[in-house]
Design a protein that fits this description.
With about 550 residues, the protein is mainly alpha-helical. It has 2 domains: about 250 residues, 3-Layer(aba) Sandwich (D-Maltodextrin-Binding Protein, domain 2), CATH 3.40.190.10; about 170 residues, D-Maltodextrin-Binding Protein, domain 2 (3-Layer(aba) Sandwich). The chain is built from 22 helices and 12 strands. A 3-stranded antiparallel beta sheet has the order 3-11-6. Helix 2 packs across helix 15, helix 18 runs antiparallel to helix 19 and helix 20 packs across helix 22. The chain is globular and about 75 Å long. The protein starts with 12 loop residues before the first helix and ends with a helix. The relative contact order is 0.20.
């Protein structure tokens, strides 16, 4: 059916993106309208420092001898004027709290966000890494843990990690455990998000007198209609070389995952060569050769052309990171002065008519302590992380200790000029490294209302956001994940992932009469580069534990 009347008034794209995309933090019980931050930080902090559930440590043990602790922080180049990433109002507040509670002197070591893993590798190799480091890369964590480069956290987590176990439980489900030992604590995500989302021009559907597509066949009919009507590029793609987002949901809809074993073997990185995926690639190849997909998309490696096509109204369909189209849609709606334009859609049905929408894992970063850190400092690090896992603490870090709440009880993102004036970093989330899972983040009715309330420009309504959450929830699915990485994957995995994405792009762009030859050549190259060894290793591991 058509989805009409979805965009009639507007919301702030910056706050909306922050709320939905990843951060969505809050206190653990606020419901007052425009209230100031809850209680003084010392009371909530003291609660967060409480012993583990088994009461293993005494409260007096929490404030021990003076300890110096170095903590990694990302540098995005957006420090407030007169401050630095390491020294600003927020870092000073954290330092004061931790000193008072635990007698820990915290200092920060900045790492450029764009090359953080490379920088951490260099510091780890040189023995100069800070006492707390982190990464999103499971392979990097596994390499460190399996080579003895990380501190075994099993005992100190059991003694001092009560808040982490309580408030971040979803994120701790074995992903950082090897051979019965814990080598990282995992940051807990906030809002449950799909990995990628498709968006379609509702106004073009209306103009073409077409229904909202709910199948790939109907999507194809729309794409051809857009081309025939000369409205613009039917499907805008980019050539990003580090993500499967441009094709994963589409190609994956051709793949049958009958059991957990198959889903584990063919996760996101290997979906493009799973049984059935070739049919999806062939369909994309056909549509490309028929002029339905951006013709030179592999050259758009930074996505700038695709994003411009969204904002300028030059395309009718995109498949992108879940909230990535919002900024361009805001610009487009402001330019056209009409609504709706882009709305989320799900036209990627499986063979049985259902849907499969890959979702983010509930864990985010691997937060680690290097083996070179002394035992005394490792305990201090766990106290620091456990304190930060308390929602009452984390909300003050994420939104500043001066945070306010709207009438829905949702914390309000400080405006950029306010952060600059008060000396807070532009991305407060970077210091909130343990917990974003707060009261309102998965109450989608509240989220939709909050997004629509905190507006700066007119581009979407509460109904638009409700529809967004509904569409993303269709067929929510998470690929199985384990801490262990087979040897072949540890050796070849990064290279294969890069090759796989280029393989897909090459198949899409091949001349129609050369698709089969292009596919076979590319597939054989992947196998020769270690693909089959990886798949065999994943199968062998799964079978060994089931």
């Amino acid at each position: 059916m058509k989805r009409k009347g979805l965009l009639k008034q507007a919301v702030a794209i910056l706050l909306a993106t922050v709320m939905v995309a990843a951060t969505g933090c809050g206190n653990s019980g606020s419901s007052s309208s425009s209230s100031s931050a809850p209680a003084d930080s010392s009371s909530s902090s003291s609660e967060s420092a409480a012993p583990a559930a088994d009461g293993a440590e005494a409260a007096a043990d929490l404030k021990g001898d003076e300890v110096d602790l170095r903590v990694m922080v990302w540098d995005r180049g957006n420090a407030a004027p007169g401050t630095t990433t390491e020294e600003n109002t927020m870092t000073k507040w954290i330092q004061d709290q931790v000193k008072e509670l635990f007698n820990i002197n915290v200092s920060y070591v900045s790492v450029p966000r764009s090359e953080s893993d490379d920088k951490v590798n260099i510091m780890m190799s040189g023995g100069s890494a800070p006492d707390i480091i982190f990464t999103y890369d499971q392979s990097l964590f596994y390499n460190y843990a399996s080579s003895g480069a990380l501190k075994d956290l099993t005992d100190i987590y059991a003694q001092y990690g009560g808040n982490i176990a309580n408030y971040c439980a979803e994120a701790q489900e074995g992903i950082a455990d090897l051979d019965g030992k814990k080598y990282a604590v995992m940051k807990q995500r906030g809002t449950e998000n799909s990995r990628h989302t498709a968006y379609i021009r509702q106004d073009w559907l209306d103009q073409l007198n077409m229904e909202m597509p709910t199948t790939k066949e109907e999507l194809g009919e729309y794409l051809y209609a857009v081309k025939d009507a000369g409205l613009g590029i039917p499907w805008a793609m980019s050539g990003r070389g580090d993500t499967e987002k441009g094709y994963l949901n589409f190609v994956g809809s051709y793949v049958d995952l009958p059991d957990e074993r198959t889903a584990y073997i063919y996760n996101e990185a290997y979906m493009a060569i799973a049984p059935g995926s070739k049919d999806g690639l062939k369909q994309l190849n056909e549509w490309y050769n028929d002029g339905l997909i951006t013709q030179d998309f592999p050259t758009d490696t930074d996505e700038s052309i695709m994003l411009a096509d969204i904002a300028n109204g030059n395309t009718g369909f995109v498949l992108v990171d879940t909230t990535q189209a919002w900024a361009g849609t805001e610009v487009l709606n402001g330019t056209l002065g009409i609504q709706p334009t882009f709305v989320p859609c799900m036209p990627f049905e499986l063979a049985d008519g259902s849907y499969r929408t890959p979702y983010e894992y509930r864990y985010a970063m691997f937060v680690m302590i290097p083996e070179t850190t002394s035992d005394e400092k490792a305990v201090a690090a766990m106290k620091y992380l456990n304190w930060m896992a308390d929602p009452a603490v984390a909300v003050q870090i994420r939104y500043s200790p001066e945070l306010t709440y709207n009438e829905l009880g949702v914390a309000v993102e400080p405006k950029e000029d306010e952060k600059n004036e008060k000396g807070y970093p532009g991305t407060l989330d970077d210091l909130c490294i343990m917990n974003l899972n707060f009261d309102w983040v998965n109450d989608f009715d509240t989220m939709a209302k909050a997004n629509a309330m905190e507006q700066t420009t007119d581009w979407a309504t509460e109904e638009w956001y409700k529809n967004y959450y509904d569409v993303c929830a269709l067929g929510k699915f998470r690929f199985p994940s384990y801490a262990f990485i087979p040897e072949a994957e540890a050796t070849y995995g990064i290279d294969i992932k890069t090759r796989m994405i280029q393989f897909v792009y090459t198949c899409i762009c091949a001349p129609a009469d050369q698709f089969e030859a292009t596919y076979e050549k590319g597939y054989n190259e992947l196998v020769n580069a270690g693909l089959q060894d990886i798949l065999d290793g994943r199968a062998e591991y799964y079978d060994s534990i089931h």
